[in-house]
Structures are given as structure tokens and as C-alpha cells.
Amino acid sequence: xxxxxxxxxxxxxxxxxxxxxxxxxxxxxxxxxxxxxxxxxxxxxxxxxxxxxxxxxxxxxxxxxxxxxxxxxxxxxxxxxxxxxxxxxxxxxxxxxxxxxxxxxxxxxxxxxxxxxxxxxxxxxxxxxxxxxxxxxxxxxxxxxxxxxxxxxxxxxxxxxxxxxxxxxxxxxxxxxxxxxxxxxxxxxxxxxxxxxxxxxxxxxxxxxxxxxxxxxxxxxxxxxxxxxxxxxxxxxxxxxxxxxxxxxxxxxxxxxxxxxxxxxxxxxxxxxxxxxxxxxxxxxxxxxxxxxxxxxxxxxxxxxxxxxxxxxxxxxxxxxxxxxxxxxxxxxxxxxxxxxxxxxxxxxxxxxxxxxxxxxxxxxxxxxxxxxxxxxxxxxxxxxxxxxxxxxxxxxxxxxxxxxxxxxxxxxxxxxxxxxxxxxxxxxxxxxxxxxxxxxxxxxxxxxxxxxxxxxxxxxxxxxxxx
Length: 468
Description:
The protein is an alpha/beta fold. The chain is 23% helix and 26% strand.
């Protein structure tokens, strides 16, 4: 099920770009641009593309991601260029921009050619002619080059996630530096500069916090309502507030299931299957081809991507495509990446016993999140063994494996096995083989580009002492 775009105005060439805040979304963004993270019923990129409806799409991201950026299995859309620009006027939009209703449409309509809008020195949106656009690409690429990335990973060396890391410049100092650099570029490029207070996502926990609002926003933009004729609702299915429920084509909802949209809309995409006696509370999104196992309890604010297998209790969480959490166990206030497997009986805490604010690993250090509720953050290809108990604000890195009797550490680095009592390096060849087998089971090709990305990430993580 895709949001309909037929009646939207063509907005020309669109470039969605990353900026230097991508490490704040590690490990979720370690192997993909920030704009490819899921939010609501789709990725951030898809949200922007739907609103803008470009004739051509350009993606600007970290250099080491160039081989995989824009390559999304089973997805069609405008032709995509990566890290290169045509000689045309281009609309640039920051891939961390979050808007609701018609805010982005208004933004795009109002911005004049030769203008850049920023927030605290961070570019948000710009409409630039070909010469200024080429210059702006160079400005962006300074933070996204391989050299810049390697400096970042080198700075993680010696930080084990148990400390706060070296002192950082104050927020005001950072803003002053960024504004100065941006205004100097704008002056040299003869680009007008304006300021905005619009929302930019800055940390991974904001994805969880905004998810229910994004599901509602997406629902309001979908023209279709009700159940597709090709869907099958078996006897004994209970639909509560049916006007706020969308069921796509070839969906099966088995007997005893309750779809309760009294607290927000429920969207079930094409080919999904809801097994008997499940309870789903809105706002909620169930992705294409996903199977919700019998007796599952899917709470409000939850998004489940394409071709997942989900059971047990899940609430206010994002589960990206091709991930398995088939069995009993609680997952709450969490973001779980793609190609993750969570074993039977595993669960997470999302609230401290003293109801205090949660601190969590972020970009090489422990930070204050300001959240009372925060569960598991699991990077792509992570594996959580049976009966594992993850603490509040735990982070499992890309290609990590967690298997302990007690609570594991709150930070498990990428390419490691957390097997009590020690941390073991995950050999690259074994990680590659496991990923290839899992992807093959879902009929997805483990391409040479993906293999090269694994090798690059492994090298970068070794450079940082696996503290990423």
C-alpha cells in the first residue's frame, strides 16, 4: 500500500541530504543514511518524496554508503542519483526534517530560487540554481567524506560506552561555528540566507517519540478507507471505530482478532496476515507481507515494516523490515532495525524502577535522553538470544550478538558477541555468511555492494575499538 501521488504537483528535481548529525542515530544509521530510517508508515525519505512529488530524486549521503543508497528491495519511484547533481535548479531538503499536514508543501512553495533556510546553522531547505547547487554539494560533502568519517570513528577509540566521553563544546559555541561557516559559504555563493524554527530530528529516541503522530499524519493523507475487496476478514473479527481502519489487498485477518482504532488509526498493508486472537491498538501500522502471530498484543504507537514476523507484546516501537520477533516477550519504546532476530522469551525494560530519566549510549558516549520511557535500540543484523533481558535504554550494535544469563551491558558494540562474562569479536567472514543466509531465506540478494559495506563497517569499527 503506497500513498497516492497522482494528483500532486510535480516539483522538479529534489535532493535529500544528510548532514553531520548522522552519528546521533548510530547504530541505526551505521549502514544506511538517516533518511532511510522508518517513521510512521514509511521511511523519512518516502515521507519527503510523497509531499514534494519530484520528477527526479537525488540522494546525498556519506561516501561509503554510495553503493547501497537508494537501492531499496521491491520499491519503485523516480530515477535516483547518488552524490551527483544534474545541471538544473535543485530543491534541497535535509533528510532529518520532520513536518506534518501541509507544512512541507507550504515550505516548498514559499522558498525562492537562490535562497537557503537554516536552523541554528544547519541547512534545512534550499532552492538553488546549478552553480550554487554544485557549490552547496561541496559544502555538504565535507562532513560526509571518507576522511571525515574515519576521523569520527577514530575519536571513538577508548570510549567503552560506560563514560560520558571527552568534553564537548557548548551548544551556543556549536551554533556560532555552524552559522559562521554557512554564512561564509552563502556569501561566496551569492545565496540569500533565512532562518526557521522548524523541527529537525536529532537523536534516535525522537523517532520513537514521534512515531504515533506520524502514523496519524500518514493515515490522513491516504485517500483509501475501509477494507480492499481482496482482503479476507474471518468470522469473529471485531473492528472498533471501523472508519479509522485501512486494510489493504490480499490481507487475512483471522478469527478472534480485535482491531481497536478508538485511540488512533490502524493501517494494515497489502499481503499482511493477522493470525487468530491478536489484539491491535491504534495508532498502528502493519507493513506489507508481515505476519502477526496468534495471540499477539500490538500496542499503540507501533510501526512494523515489510515482511516481518511479530508475536508477543509490542508497544510504542518501530520494527524495521525483514525482522523477526515471533515469540512471547515484551518489546516497548524500542527501535529494532532490519534483519534482526529476537529469540523466544526475550524482553526489554523501558522504565526505570525509580521512574527517573534514562541515560543511553549515543555516538560514542552516554547521554541524557530526557526520556522516562526508552527500551531497546538494535542495529541491523543484530541477534538477541532466547530469554535475554535488555535493560532500559540498551543499545545493540550492527551485527552484534547478545546472549547472557543476567542483564547484558547497556551498550553492545557492533560486530561483537556479548557472551558472559566477556566480549568477543565477531569474525567478519562469519558475520557475512550469517547475513547472506538470512537474506536468502527472504529471497533478498546479498549483493557485492552489501558485502563491501560490511567490510567497510568492520574496518571502521576496528578503528574505533568496536565502540560504535
